[in-house]
Amino acid sequence: MPNRLINQSSPYLLQHANNPVDWFPWCEEALLKARSENKLILVSIGYSACHWCHVMEHESFEDQEVAEIMNRHFVCIKIDREVRPDIDQIYMNAVQLMTGAGGWPLNCFCLPDQRPIYGGTYFRKADWKNLLINLAEFWSKKPDEAVEYAVRLTEGIRQSEQVIKMDHLLEFNQQDLISIFEPWKRSFDLVDGGFNRVPKFPMPNNWQFMLRYAHLMKDDSAHTAVRVTLQKMAFGGIYDQIGGGFARYSVDGKWHVPHFEKMLYDNAQLISLYAEAYQYTPDHLYKDVVYESIAFIERELTSDQGGFYSALDADSEGVEGKYYTFSKSELIDVLGSDAELFCRYYQVNDEGNWEEERTNILMRTIDDEEFSVAEGLDLTELKSKIKFLKSKVLAIRSSRIRPGLDNKIIAAWNGLMLKGYVDAYRVFGDTQFIEKAVKNAEFIIQRLFVNTKLLRIYLSESDEYVYAFLDDYAFVIEAFISLYEVTFDETYLYKAKELADQSIEEFYDSDTGMFFYTSKSGETLIARKQELMDNVIPSSNSAMANNLFKLAHFFDQESYHMISEQMLKNVCSTIKTYPSAYSNWASLLMLKVFGLFEIAITGSESDNKRKEIEKYYIPNKILLGGEKGTLPLLNDKWHAETKIYVCRNKTCLLPVKEAIDAIKQIDNPSTTPGVQDS
């Protein structure tokens, strides 16, 4: 018989709907049952694409004997971390405090009042059974000790990442940036890319900071680290060489063996990163990655309505990576006489190149120029042939049983993907990218709002609402700001402002000068957290601080600037101690140090001039203009003739007609923006 999860809409919860475990979703019924029966709560958290979540389900949650122990002694609650990141945040913090590590599946045992007492991640079946029995006995015989420990642990959760509001004045300068970068660069892996640690995560925001640091600080070592990392990731098994798109991380130090799940948020950010890298240093590899990754998104993760789905599973047919890997004999069957060239190109051999016998993860070791010389082939001919052979392999692969799709449409991740499309359009000028971006923006506006409030999740077959968290607001705001900059349609910028004002009203904490992750009108949990540290996704607070900094310039609104400045002051000293976890904050610091160029382009040719401006890498700029507009900086700048204004610190240089002349104004350090426009 199905359990209560059968009525849920989350794909992850539905995966567990036929377990013999008497699962509850997170709900008042479950919490009341724990209190009334004085039972410990098991909070078990994961997500649909998680390989080890599947393993633990198969080993333990599908086992009748294990389920009977769980049902007898515990109230068991199953949670999709992507639907309820607020709950996941609290219990992940608890497990990290207890064990020094975290991950998914996350299993945390709590008192009937939700306070945690013990937890961990994946447990083998025998260990899990012993743990269940020991905890049940502990709660029965020593409840006072359990309560005492829960009190201390809950206090630790509430105090972790606690911010002290910094009231003293701070002057940011280039030495602050040097103090962040110089110790950090000692952790670079300049042979295989990324950092000197395993497993290796792409960490797009880290490398975005490095790109901008390399340009503004004129530091070649930062650019070298980015260049090596982007090439090695694009050549590695972490990148889907046949179908485009990146897996979540590499389990080894060479980007060879991926953890095969493919997440929307990773690919969205990596599209933005590779596009920005191409703008800085044009490299056809970067362009190929952008186009192939977008093709993957459109083929696998895009709804008919223009929303983006969350993820593809790591497993198919119960085997991790089976959909993506090939034996050499399979490729010979598909490609015939061309198979040997293809196999040399992608490092395929008879024995296989990873743990599965005779199975190969496709990857590259050298670039096309070097390979063409080694093979004695014309470069153009080689590229054309590999492209054709890839299409044949992709067609065969598409007939396999596909990995499971998580069809949740999450506001935050759609914001990241929308920005990915905008960044691709900004750099490559391909109209299909802006068309998809606008379609997604309209989807967000029409489908992800209820009574002017942003939703976390859109599921077409569900009428249940989960209202947005701070990251949803932050990344949708960022996306709408970016969309305005390439369309000059003020609808999107004013929508971003509206969402920023809602965020301040619902999430801002004046006592600390930071934003809570949860809304003041949301569910009360045992702790209300402030997400500060950048991870595989930038933190919601760092994203909001960057947004407010830009909106302050667009709308000449000092209150936004003051909040953003206070947020940066609060974390500034911490950035230097752990820069990889504060890279988005470091990017904001860089904007503060170098200032923000406001480039206003007005007139009938404004879009063409914008495209010309975008041929140059200017990471510390915003763009505004069009043929009409209401923004303060555009006052008195409307003329029959198209003009470009370079402004800074509320002062504009004399207008110019050509993009190259505006670039000269930006690049000339002796230029003083003190001459008012007329």
Question: What does this protein structure show overall?
Answer:
With 678 residues, this protein is of the alpha+beta class. It is 49% helix and 10% strand. The strands form eight sheets. Strands 2-1-3-4 form a four-stranded mixed β-sheet. A four-stranded mixed β-sheet has the order 19-18-20-21, with helices on both faces. Strands 7-8-11 form a three-stranded antiparallel β-sheet. Strand 13 and strand 14 form a beta hairpin.
How many helices? The count is 25
Beta fraction = 5-15%
Uncertain regions: pLDDT < 50 for 5+ in a row? 672-678
Overall average residue pLDDT? 94
What's the gist of this structure?
The chain is an alpha+beta fold and 678 residues long. Helices cover 49% and strands 10% of the residues.
What keyword list fits this structure?
disordered C terminus; four-stranded mixed β-sheet; globular
